[in-house]
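SUBJECT: protein chain
CONTENTS: sequence, structure tokens:
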Amino acid sequence: MKTTTMWVIAIALVAATGCSETETEVIDSGGDDQVALGISPNLKVEAGTRSATKSVVSGDLITYANYTTEAPGLGVLITNKAANGWYTPDGTDYTGHHVWYMGDERGANWISIQTKGATFADTNESPYYLTKDIGRVYAYYPYDVTITNTLTNVNAEADLKIPVTVLSSGEINAQRNNAKKYWNAGAWASTARTDLVNLSLPTEKDYLYFGADGGRYVNNGRADGFSPVTPEDEPNNLDTDNPGYKINLDMKHAMAMVSFRVYDGGRLSGNNVNFTKFTIKNHIGGTNLFKTGNGKMSLTDGTITETVATAELSRTITNYVLMRQVEAGEGQYAFIQTGTTTGGINGKTVSKSVSAIVYPVNFGENEIDLEITLQEGDNTPVVYPVTLTGNQWEPNNNYIYTLSAGRNKLTVMDVSVEAWADNEQDEIPL
């Protein structure tokens, strides 16, 4: 009876502090055994509000609050050594070049599959076996079975592109409080890390690609003329002769994120005011750099191309009451400013943020406009326009704009940048 050796893929999400990697133990094998493609990633899919289906990745594990509806899995494509054709596997379980990987509800025990069950326990493994021939690995998230409808042939690495989309409209439910501070029993308290989630459109997708900083080459570890690769050997995916069956996948964000918090600087109203919509669009007379709609993502380096739609991006928002700066009488929606900008009580630390995934863009002055819509009770909504200062919205970064609303204008008070989690921008007064 044959022993199956798993090709281990350790996946790490690149963050500001670097990346983490995990590997599963590989079962020992004999010289003639088949070597199968396996996976043990270390990523986390945050579900936005956690109760809605979401594909925004942040953290270091892939877990799912609802396995049936929220678990897309990872897609892996394997080419030949020269990347001018697809890899030919050894075996009959998986005979193509597009492999679907799925982990359990806790983000462990990843296996290659062809059909997903209602639960991980109901999902059967379908191994992808490697040969002694060298192949190249390309990976992306989230898995899409239709990728091969457009990516049928590969003549060069430049052909490896998949469709991506930035949604131009949708609704964000901001019921969950993701502010860094919240009012609790008559005092300000720090928000639990589990509540510091992205409040964004449930149906938008966060696209990841395999950066291959440590190489892409794999085989079964038994190339002619070379010593067999053993389970104890470390991955060497830069080796073009006999790299072996282990590979670390450093998954990186291809998209950028922008986030907005809005608060009442104390001069807007004595009543509750709701933040009901934000719109990002190209400035009239600019060069239409901001794009939405469909594009293509390179599986080699994550570069986004073939974007053509210059339509605005808008998000309607529910359940977002502005925090109001006051001199006295703090409460659920009112605060007295104290302490430092980052660690004290102020509009930045007590206000929720709502987010959208966008295509990376480098823009100058008078290129991109932001519109914030506020509404007091049943009064007519008021739209506050702001032309953003030139910036570069880069992949893997979240650009957080804090805006202060006044009676006559909206002011950007802060703009910050962090690696996907939070990147503060200078505040903007409205």
